[in-house]
Amino acid sequence: MVGVGLLESRNIAEATIVSPTRQTNIEGNGNNNVPFNNFLVSPVGVRYQQVFAAPEFLSIEPGLITKIAFRPDAGRAGNAFSSTIPNIQINLSTTSLLPDALSTTFAENVGDDETIVYNGELLLSSANIGTPKQPKDFDIVIDLQNPFFYDPNQGNLLLDVTTFSFTRTTAFDSENTFGDSISRVFSFDSSASTGSADTTGLVTKFTIATRNNTALIPESSSTLALLTFGALSAISQVKRSLSTPK
Description:
Layout: E1 4-6, E2 13-19, E3 30-32, E4 46-52, E5 63-70, E6 81-95, E7 115-126, E8 140-150, E9 156-163, E10 172-176, E11 182-187, E12 196-198, E13 200-202, E14 204-210, E15 216-218, H1 219-243
Antiparallel strand pairs: 1-15, 2-14, 3-10, 4-9, 4-11, 5-8, 5-14, 6-7, 6-9, 10-13, 11-12
């Protein structure tokens, strides 16, 4: 059995942030099939970028994004499912572009710190459960293969998803409001260099490992967590130093 210890001196914790924050306990006003449910629109995959405004993350310290989670639409469009996406690539980066102001050229949205956080086969599932008259649980969870160090003081967060084939999951909860913290650009062709932009976006929950809080984490993973956090923090500092005008 894995032991759990209180790491007061190491100060590593997991925090969660939902974006848009207003939708944490409120159902979004729409539902969305891309990029994870493209069976009706694109047998050749989808390219999808979504930006999240940095102020949503300022309530916690910079840290490692280790998980991304979504929830099914709470209306009739959302269903329980279990499905394997045969080939998917998910990137994260910091971007200077704002919600509702993404370029329709995908490459222009991507930041210099772009990182492949997941690549390959991906099993997604949902039990489609939740409190009555409330949004469904965030149980569509992606554990990132490579955590991404994100400092909201450096810019907004860009999620970049490419699927390469037919995928079938369910409709996800989304929000379509101009002026909120999210927007997207997408194409029904995974090889496209440009796409269509609008103000819609998936309601998304991030799990972030931070170092300035105290938390219970498995003792067996504490050393790896610390090494990973320290290394990525150092890399981030070096990148910022090199990019700062002299």
